[in-house]
Specification:
- The protein is an alpha/beta fold.
- It has two domains: 244 residues, 3-Layer(aba) Sandwich (Peroxisomal Thiolase, Chain A, domain 1), CATH 3.40.47.10; 150 residues, Thiolase/Chalcone synthase (Peroxisomal Thiolase, Chain A, domain 1, 3-Layer(aba) Sandwich), CATH 3.40.47.10.
- The chain contains 14 helices and 13 strands.
- A hairpin with a 3-residue loop joins strand 12 and strand 13.
- The longest helix has 16 residues.
């Protein structure tokens, strides 16, 4: 029998997505393929498709606190409180010592929005630095969103952010699992956050790379695997999970979304931007080995695919290398519905698929009008949700710039 103190489970989820502010609503929208990608008009840049989040920002903090903090911190605080409530840990101090709780947030970018806004504000005062806010430094340090969560919840255990490009959400969950297994913490709040839609520079950079999506209908701009895809739809968002040892979860009678059984992070070491499918395949193989699973035992592969030409092809090449001849393995993509939420992408995409363990539904990939032959995958769920599927394991891919790859495997909880 496996040691329940070494088994790591997810027991709570709080999220903010461009189409939802809780998991139930998010799941419903994903199954329906309902996108709420809209168009924003950015300073210095102009209009572009984007995923913008709407949620009750003052549910857990006052407006004054939100103005003092950051957009990522505001999203993180909301998601962390919602995750604890979902896990039945309100207050969490009934079960856990605040000094034994860790907070780990995955980020792709942080500080860009605050710096751009401050420079713009300074321009209204002839760039006189006497008007530079004294809040700038604490707003832009990388650990800011995790720190804002600790202050809101009075958590006194370790907190830090993990900068792992768009693999950061998965990386935060991997960090949580490792810290729990090492006995460094007894419970973790782990997830990913993004405030990217507030930065004209991020949009301009993807535009300069010919990697920013455009479409007459913004809801159709994010179209991974489609022959006519032309780039990424930038989104903001966040998702935080409560992560515990199985022993502690059982002790308090918690519901269990799933068990983290395998994970891997590796590096391409080949290019700043262009992915390496061989290294991505290696990452998936290592995660499978650690989970003690064969490819045929994976029920669902949730792809990272962002809608870029080379990125989608590379991942499909890697997936075919692992999952050829796996007739019971289905494949989907969440970014087609919500866009690319950067550091929050991996955790949002995992959250959107976890309910499949209970409802047996695999949400669709939307906006594929004509499949790119180089992206053709067996059992790709497109247009309409696939129902009545026995889902026992989910493999979640998240890859990022500088050649960082992450794969996380979550299994349906079983006592043995």
């Amino acid at each position: 029998m496996l040691n329940p103190f070494n088994r790591i489970v997810i027991t709570g989820c709080g999220l903010v997505a461009p189409n939802a502010s809780n998991l139930a609503e998010f799941r419903e929208k994903l199954i329906a393929g309902h996108s709420e990608i809209t168009r924003v008009d950015l300073r210095y840049f102009g209009p572009a498709p984007a995923g913008v989040c709407h949620f009750p920002e003052t549910r857990y903090r006052k407006n004054k606190e939100n103005r003092k903090g950051t957009r990522a911190g505001c999203i993180g605080v909301y998601c962390a409180h919602e995750a604890l409530a979902d896990a039945g840990l309100t207050p969490f101090t009934d079960f856990y010592d605040p000094a034994r709780v860790g907070v780990y947030t995955g980020l792709t970018e942080h500080g860009t929005v605050e710096t751009e806004n401050e420079v713009y504000a300074l321009s209204q005062y002839s760039y006189d630095t006497r008007y530079w806010t004294h809040h700038h430094n604490p707003r832009t340090v990388l650990n800011n969103p995790a720190g804002e969560i600790t202050m809101s919840l009075h958590v006194t255990g370790p907190h830090y952010s993990i900068g792992a490009a768009c693999a950061a959400g998965n990386a935060s969950l991997i960090q949580a699992a490792q810290m729990l297994r090492l006995g460094e913490v007894d419970m973790a709040l782990a997830g990913g956050l993004s405030e990217a839609v507030g930065s004209f520079g991020i949009f301009a950079s993807f535009k300069a790379q010919n990697a920013l999506a455009e479409a007459e209908d913004p809801r159709k701009a994010s179209r991974p695997f489609d022959a006519g895809r032309n780039g990424i739809v930038i989104s903001e968002g966040g998702c935080m999970f409560v992560v515990e040892t199985l022993a502690r979860a059982l002790e308090r009678g918690a519901k269990i979304y799933g068990e983290i059984t395998g994970y891997a992070i590796n590096s391409d070491a080949t290019d700043f931007v262009l992915p390496n499918p061989a290294r991505q395949a290696e990452c998936m193989r290592l995660a499978l080995a650690r989970a003690d699973l064969t490819p045929r035992q994976i029920s669902l592969v949730n792809t990272h695919a962002t809608g870029t030409q080379q990125g989608d092809i590379a991942e499909c090449t890697a997936i075919r290398a692992i999952f050829a001849n796996c007739p019971a393995t289905f494949i989907n993509n969440t970014k087609s519905i919500i866009g690319h939420a950067m550091g929050a992408a991996g955790t949002l995409e995992l959250a959107g698929n976890l309910p499949a363990f209970a409802d047996g539904i695999i949400h669709p990939t939307i906006n594929i009008e004509e499949i790119d032959p180089e992206c053709a995958l067996d059992n790709l769920v497109a247009d309409t949700a696939r129902r009545n599927v026995e889902v026992t394991s989910i493999l979640n891919n998240s890859f990022g710039m500088m050649g960082i790859n992450s794969t996380l495997i979550v299994r349906k909880y079983a006592a043995e």
